[in-house]
């Protein structure tokens, strides 16, 4: 059985301005899982993601990667940032190179010196993300969906073990949002661990293996989607609503226990159809 | 009009390596700098602009708009050089002062105008046929100190960031009927500038964070696509450079 990839032990982070962003968080992220990090605006999601990548150093507490404590020296940070790839919410704030090709090669050039291997890797990811035709374009001249694909390609080309995405579907139309999640899903099938920060309860309910609920920098709840989203009071405390599927199921059966909630749309439709047939 | 707005990734020199591309502009730049012939400079200016139209395939109107700001400054400078106070042949007098153009001043201004325009044209050619990372790489190969190259890249990125932010904020102000009254323009412009600098700093900070997250070190490392070098790629730039040298020699020989 796979263990935990990252563990936060009583980790806190306070901004230089004095604002407490993360407070005494204990959290374990299991390997190979799809994890949704949820919470209202200002709950500390983005700060937590930056802690995982070593951009921020906890002001208190410890972070462990595969059981080893994070070290913040130059060599250790390079290794960590290769293993924990982060895709930012705003693509424009991530795109730095003047062409798509150079953008995808950026992280790899910082890590490795073998140019032949880097070029092979870039070609592989340009093919995978269907970016070959755009490789000479300036990333800033692309559409939001294309920019997101470039950002994903540039991070995934570094072959991280944990892929962290800050609101991957923000600013994307439904088709591009679906495509982004499909690409991430494919990475998870290859054994990568995914951690996604999102406000979309419906997406998280259908997609995640594990849900982490944050409120004011603290972990409010951790569990499977059914456990977390079945608890309406805790969700309301975190400033979130129940997923539509849960709401519909509870409209149908108000006292439905969390473990009896439908896992997907098909299950709910089956139940409703069965109920209708029985009533008739 | 900004370079980044009209830069085309599929220009005709795109398949050449930046070093081969440099053979198109480097001799032109050296010749324009050493030439003291007005005719040669105008010819170089025309050649560079024709090349821009052909190689970059941008419209004439866009190209003309690119020249608006530099030409305004150059003309002002040339006018100051050409004017003579008090003038021997005055075209007007202000009070007791006769104002006119001196022959020497006119000659110098005309040389300055032609040379400046030729050099600006070459500069546009460089910027429209190379990305900033390709130029940085070329500078690195020329053994220019890393600090200077990084400063060059950072300045370019910051100007671009500033431009993008100011454009977005200006548009947002216009959408809320900003700049509609005469009395509001100056305070609005001042607040725009303050907000633009603040937002640009935030954007720059976020960009830096994103770069750190991908292991960026002290130097900007960009890896360009590998481009094949073949000898025939040199024929055209070497031919053009030779013709330019020959034309410059003719100009010098005949005192043009």
From TrEMBL, chain A:
Domain ABC transporter: 6-241
Keyword line: ATP-binding, Cell membrane, Membrane, Nucleotide-binding, Translocase, Transport
SUPFAM superfamilies for the chain: P-loop containing nucleoside triphosphate hydrolases
Localization terms from the record: Cell membrane
A single MF term (Gene Ontology): ATP binding
A Gene Ontology term for the protein's cellular component: ATP-binding cassette (ABC) transporter complex
InterPro entries with a match to the protein in the record: AAA+_ATPase (IPR003593), ABC_transporter-like_ATP-bd (IPR003439), ABC_transporter-like_CS (IPR017871), ABC_transpr_CbiO/EcfA_su (IPR015856), ECF_ABC_transporter_ATP-bd (IPR050095), P-loop_NTPase (IPR027417)
Keyword Ribosomal protein: no
Family: Belongs to the ABC transporter superfamily.
Protein name: Cobalt transport protein ATP-binding subunit
UniProtKB/TrEMBL annotation, chain B:
Keywords in alphabetical order: Membrane, Transmembrane, Transmembrane helix
Residues that span the membrane, as ranges: 20-36, 42-60, 67-87, 107-130
Subcellular location: Membrane
One of the protein's GO biological processes: cobalt ion transport
InterPro entries according to UniProt: ABC/ECF_trnsptr_transmembrane, Cobalt_transport_CbiQ
Main location: membrane
Gene Ontology cellular component list: ATP-binding cassette (ABC) transporter complex
Topology within the bilayer: Multi-pass membrane protein
Keyword Membrane annotated: yes
Claim: Transmembrane helix is one of the keywords in the record: yes
PANTHER family referenced in this protein's UniProt entry, alphabetically: COBALT TRANSPORT PROTEIN CBIQ
Name of the protein described by the UniProt record: Cobalt ECF transporter T component CbiQ
Source organism per UniProt: Mangrovibacterium marinum
